Amino acid sequence: MSVQNFLLRQYAKYKMKDVPEAQREMMLTMVEKNPELFKKIGDEIERRTKGGEAQMKATMEVMKKYRDELSKLMQ
User: Fold this and answer.
1) Cβ contacts of 53 within 8 Å, gap of 6 or more
2) Stated pTM of the model
3) How many CB atoms lie within 10 A of CB 62?
4) Which residue blocks in the chain are alpha helix, DSSP H?
């Protein structure tokens, strides 16, 4: 495990402490498989929220946009 992955896992444990361990692991595995996709998703959400869109709405719309890529990572 690289230092970057270790730090990511520690940060995820801190930020997602209320999320069940199995779900947290699934999310981390997806991020490790395709970090560029998650960076692109994060950047797009940030751009939309800075443009005045509500964070939850922006997140839902962006996740819908990348639904196919996310479902492939889950398999």
Assistant:
1) 61
2) 0.74
3) 20
4) 3-15, 21-33, 35-50, 55-65, 67-74
- State residue 52 phi and psi, 5-degree precision: 105, -5
**What pLDDT shows up at residue 1?**
60
22-31 tens-digit pLDDT = 888 888 888 8
Exposed e or buried b for every residue in 35-54, given b needs 16+ CB within 10 A?
Answer: eebbeebeebbeebeeeeee
Q: What angle do CA 25, 27, 31 make, to 5 degrees?
A: 115
DSSP state of 19: S
Distances (CA, A) of 4 to 11, 25, 50, 54, 59: 11, 16, 28, 30, 25
